[in-house]
Design brief:
This protein is mainly α and 412 residues long. The protein contains 14 helices and two strands, in the order ααααββαααααααααα. Helix 2 runs parallel beside helix 4, helix 3 runs antiparallel to helix 4 (110-128) and helix 5 (148-165) runs parallel beside helix 7. The longest helix has 30 residues, at 178-207.
Amino acid sequence: SPAAGYGVAYGSKPGNWFCGTHFFFLNGIEHLDSYHSWMFQFAFAATAATIVSGAVAERCQMAAYAGYSALLTMWVYPVVVHWIWSSDGWLSAFSSDPMLGIGVVDFAGCGVVHMVGGAAALAGATVLGPRIGRFEAGKVNPMPGHNASLVVLGTFILWFGWYGFNPGSTLGITASGYAFVAAKTATTTTLSAASGAVTNLIIALRLSGAEHVYDLEETCNGALAGLVGITSACSVVDPWASLLIGAIAAFAYQGGRVLLLRLKIDDVVNAAPVHLFAGMWGLLAPAFFASPVNMANAYGVAKSTMLRGIFYGGNAKMLGMQLLALVMVCVWTFAWMFPFFIMMSKLGLFRVPADMEEEGLDVSKHGGVAYPGIDGSFTGIQVGDGGKPSSVAPTIGLVPQAKPADDGTADA
């Protein structure tokens, strides 16, 4: 990303609508505005890349992680940034002469960040194939995570980070109007996340049927779907609309989750449903809910124009621009990431061997386990053993349990 990404995104001369050609290796960045813009974009680029990791977890080689991260942050993501956020981009709302008079309203990156990451995640999971045992005998075998507490902690860390993501996209706080837009954005972000969490909790409850399960992890994914869904519209909608946007994002997420299961695509953490499917809805949301007052505050357009959502009397131009961006982001990302993942697979650099996958990548690739010795079968890496798992079970803190007699009852 420091080598090429920022230059591709913002290093252009006027009239370069496709991508930038300057600022490579940070050459020519000499002003405060450029430095803080680079750092802000660095965080966004990293977000787009990390989305993929969850979809291909438990079976992806480290070389592939490094490869797709480089391609995404140095080329695929920055080009989309240039299109939509640079004042020279052909889809940009910040252009002096935006397409259809409005350009694309994507305030904090629903399409730029989340759809790019989600589309790359879907491409990776499709080419990589499902985990061993995930789809067998015509059914989906559950492979739940091992620690729900960490899922919740991670969700709240992400939620907290979103306040830098969405309100931070005002790019200022002291100038006139900036504080109001940032505060409104923080409010709509919070409400959409809460709405998505509650809605997805109810949906998951209904889908559980007779089991009647209140699914904690699905509640967390609902919150994330709500956060993704509001990311484009967070600055241009009123609080009531953010509640609807978050609720609809939960349905978009569930639709994506069910579709991937039916297609036998194994996305371990449902990264594509959260970021791509909820992201597609989020990119369309401004076309329905953007109010003229909020458009004036966030984008500086006149309140008297028709640059507003359909529910506020706007015409279909904004919807047309949002749909165009949706299609172009998907086409661009898939066009680069599918061939890349196929190439990595052909070269034997994408998926780990079956025995390593069954043993677990912590053991076979990363030199340890999350909970060494907890079942007595593996104790981690011992000093001086050449990096091989020890076959000697530890005695400190562990009390071997005698196997009970077979009395016909289930083991506790």
